[in-house]
Structures are given as structure tokens and as C-alpha cells.
Amino acid sequence: MSDFSLPDYSVLMSVYKNDKAEFLNLAIASMVMQTVKPHDFVVVCDGALTPELDACLEGWQERLGDALVVVRLAKNHGLGYALNAGLPVCGCDVVARMDSDDISRPNRCEVLLTKMASDGLDLVGGAIEEFDHEPGDMDAVRMPPLSKKDIDAWLKRRNPFNHVSVLFDRHMVDQAGGYEPFPWMEDYWLWARMIAKGCRYANVSD
Asked: How far from the centroid of its chain's Cα atoms is residue 103's Cα?
């Protein structure tokens, strides 16, 4: 028996009007069906959404009840702003990042939570499989660097974490100043500042 227990976690996602409802539905479903269930699911609506997206969220609200927290911003501000708006609403210290057009494998959070708890990490990510229309159709896996040495080397020139795979301790995110406006690189810039603040981090090959 292990000498650690897995922490509760929240899911944080941003959605905006150009996202597709069918993708959003699959993304939410993949997190709801995790082998280790999330405590709560925070979705930030970055400005007004389409009727289809609203209907998708309403359907999940009926199914999940208070476990789904929908934060609505009056105007579109961008990903960094939206994620910052959602972080304080998350009910747990550990947060799983999720995009509205990605699918998580059922054991994603169990694998990452186990690594986080066993190694005392603040930030942990893993490999992702890229696809076009459905999982497996490109046979392309984006493997991140695994060792601290390799992560540090990658950090100087590219993002060493697949952001859609990441779990993090939100207190460390707060210490780093949270998300900042940095188009297309909000997560990369956050990881760099977290590491500069002494964040403990790793990737897994799963």
C-alpha cells in the first residue's frame, strides 16, 4: 500500500464563440469519465457564446449540477484573462488544465495525480497524441522531455510541457503571478515563471 493519497482536483477550461459544440461536449465528457473523478469543473465563457455552445453547457449543467461551475465574462478578453478568472473559482488546490477541443484518456488524471503525490510536485504533464478527425488517425505522439535536466534545456527554446496534459498546484501559479496576456504562449510563459519561483516539476511518458 502506498504511503500517500491522491488529492482532489478541479478542472479548468476556457471556451469562446469560435469553438465547436461537438468538440466541447467530447472534451467535457472525457474529464467527467476519468478513473479518478474531478471534484469540480470550472468552465469560463470568454465572451458571449453561440446557441449551440450554450446548449451544450446547459446539458452538462443539468447532469453535473453544482459540480459544474460556469463563469461568464461579458466580453472576450483572451485565454490568459479567462483562465485567471476561473482559477479563484476552482474548489481544489490541484487543477487540471483542459482545452475545449481536446480529449483526455480515462486515466490521465490518475496517472498524473499519482506522480504529483508520490514525488511532491507542483507541476506535472505527459505525452499527447495528436489527431485530425478522431484519435489515432495521425499516429503522432508528442513526447515531452522527462528529466529535470532535459526540461530545463527545452525551456530555453520551446515549451517543455504539453499544456493540455498538465496538472498544477494553483498556489504556485499564484506565486508566479498567474496567467498573463501572451497570445499563443500563455501556458509556456506561466511554466517558465513558476520554475523561476522554485516550482517542482516533471513529465511522465504516458
From this structure: 11
Strands 123-125 and 167-169: antiparallel
Residue 198: Cβ-neighbour burial (10 angstroms; 0-12, 13-18, 19+): exposed
Confidence of residue 153 (pLDDT cuts 50, 70, 90): very high
Cα separation, 123 vs 160, in Å, equals: 12
> CA–CA separation, 4 vs 82, rounded Å?
33
Which residues lie below 8 Å from residue 6, measured CB to CB, with a gap of 6+? 36, 110, 113, 114, 117
Give 183's pLDDT tier (boundaries 50, 70, 90).
Answer: confident
pTM of the model: 0.92
pLDDT at residue 196 tops 90: yes
Measured torsion, CA atoms of residues 32, 184, 111, 86, in degrees rounded to the nearest 10? -50
* List of residues 6+ apart from 60 with CB closer than 8 A: 25, 28, 32, 68
Within 10 angstroms of residue 4's Cβ, the number of other Cβ atoms is 12
Under 8 Å CB-to-CB from 33, ≥6 apart: which residues? 106
